[in-house]
Please model this.
Amino acid sequence: MNKLSSATKRAMERNYYQGCDWFCDFVTSDVKGDLTYEDNIHRRDPSAVLKVDGLYYTWYSKSVGVSVGFMTGDPDAKVFPWDYTEIWYATSKDGYEWKEQGLAVGRGEKGAYDDRSVFTPEVYEEDGKFYLVYQVVQSPYKVRSFEYIAMAWADSPCGPWTKSPEPILAPSKNGEWADDDDTNRFNVKIKGGFDSLKVHDPCLIKFKGKYFLYYKGEPMGEEFYMGGRETKWGVAIADDIKGPYIKSEYNPITNSGHETCLWKYKDGIAAFLSTDGVEKNTLQYAEDGINFEIMSVIKGGPEAAGPYRDEATENDSPVSGMTWGLCHNIFSPWGYIKRYDIDYTQKKQYTSKRPFE
Ligand code: AAL
Model:
C-alpha cells in the first residue's frame, strides 16, 4: 500500500476492523395476548425480562386515554401518553404470549412525590428480592416539571411493593430560567447541566460489588446541536442497593442515546445507544462501567429495549445480553409493546476477516 486515504487511516486508528462480534441486526415482531395494541390504552417502556420459577416477567408503563398536551389550560389534563401512568406487569410462558397480571406500583396519594405519574420501570433481582426503579412526576405536570427517579422493592415479582420514602435520584436543577413562561423549557438565562431538568429511564445493574444506576438526563434549556435531541446518560453509584446514589464525577458518560439499555458482558458493561445524538445506533463497552468506547455501528435497534437477563448465557458473546426482549412500537399506531430478537440468520453472514492482518 503506497498511499492511505483519510478513511483508511481513520479505520485503522479507530480499530474499525476488529471483527464481527459486536455487530448484529435486530428484528421486531408483534407479541400475542394482552400486550398487543389496544385502542385508548398506552403500554410502553418495558423493563428487562426476568425468568422466575419458569415464568417470564416484565413491567411497563400503562395509561388510559388520549393525551392533549400542555396548552389546554387545564392542570388536570393528560399531557403526555406517559402522564397519569402506573406500572403494571405481565407474565409469559414462552416470551411470545403475554398475560397482563395487574398493577405493580401505582401513583402516590395527593401531595406525594409521585402523585401524578410513575413510569418507565426497570427491574433488578438480587437474593430473591426484586427492585423496581422508575421515573416519577408530582402534580401539576408542567413543561418545566422536574422529574425524579424512585425505587420500590418486594419479596416476590408479584409484589406487594414498598416504595422508597423519597426519590432516589434528583435532577441537578443547576440552570436558570430566563422568564416565568412555564410553556417554554428552552428559554434559559443559564443553561443547566445535562440532567438539570429530568432524570429518566433508570437501569440498575450490580457491578464490581456496587450498584450502578444508569439514567438519561435532559437539561434546562435543551438545544438541538447534534442533529436531534440533546439527551445524554449519567450514572449514580451506591454501596447499598437502596442508596444513597452518588452521581459519578464523569457524568455525562455518553454524548448520545435515548432510553438506557445496558447489559453485563465479561468484566464490563455493554450498552445500546439509540434514537438521539451523533453516536445513536452504536453498541458501546466500558470495562469500568463509566468510560464507554464505540464497538460497532448498527443499522438501528429496538426502542426502549428491555432485554431478557440470562446470567447463564450473558458472556457467550458481546451481544448475548441483548439476544431477545421487549421494546415499544414507535410507528403508528404507537403505544404498545413488541418483542425484538437479534437476527441470527443475518449475523451468521458476518465474518471476522481483518484486512490488515
Ligand atoms: C420514554 C422515556 C421517558 C420519556 C418518555 C417516557 O421512552 O425516554 O419516559 O419521558 O419516553
User: Anything to note?
Assistant: The chain has two helices and 24 strands. Residues 6-13 form the longest helix (8 residues).
